[in-house]
Amino acid sequence: MKRVLFWIPLMLVGLLLGLMLRQLEAPRDEAVASHWVDQPMPAFALPPATDGVAGLSTADLATGTPHLVNIFASWCVPCRVEAPQLEALKARGVDVVGIAIRDKPEDVAAFLAEYGNPYSRIGSDVDSNVQIAMGSSGVPESFLVDGRGIVREQIQGVILEQDVDRIARALEALP
Predict the structure, then answer these.
(1) Residues ≥6 apart with Cβ < 8 Å to 103
(2) What SS3 class is residue 160?
(3) Does residue 29 carry a pLDDT above 80?
């Protein structure tokens, strides 16, 4: 009997270690999905993020033309990686609008001067209130919005070169 009692704690520890290793091999999806997908864009009106580019409001997204709404920041290193893909989308006729979060006008201007300006409008979301309301979990993050201002897709993270065709086609298919 003593021999059995000796092995029970060792078996429990082994079982616990096995469960922990299983979780390490198959982690849960940590992406924070927006509850706005298939919903109208939340109401907002943001002032311009920098001189020479208009601000952004909900009304600007319900004009009959689909938009790519890109949440970015001048201090965001992955946003710099994404910049050429946004330019490629603009060249394909995509209306790219931006929301600059926790940023200063002069920093946004310097970012645009260095990496290009694919944006037709950029709103300044200094306190990230609109970003949070949209269910965005970080930068960069983008939303495909149809011509009626309905969010159709959320793209978390950097838009890569191989994503450009799919995004352009998805926006072309939106009403």
Answers:
(1) 49, 73, 74, 75, 124, 126
(2) coil
(3) no
Phi and psi for 58 in degrees, rounded to 5? -60, -40
pLDDT tier, 28 (very low <50, low <70, confident <90, very high otherwise):
low
Cα end-to-end distance, the chain, whole Å: 74
Predicted TM-score (pTM) of the model is 0.81
For the chain, what are the domain ranges?
45-173
Q: Which residues pair with residue 28 across a beta bridge?
A: none
Q: Are 103 and 96 in contact (CB under 8 A)?
A: no
What is the CATH code for 45-173?
3.40.30.10
142 beta partners: 70, 155
Q: Tokens representing 74?
A: 């001048």
- Placement of tokens 């706005």 in the chain: 36
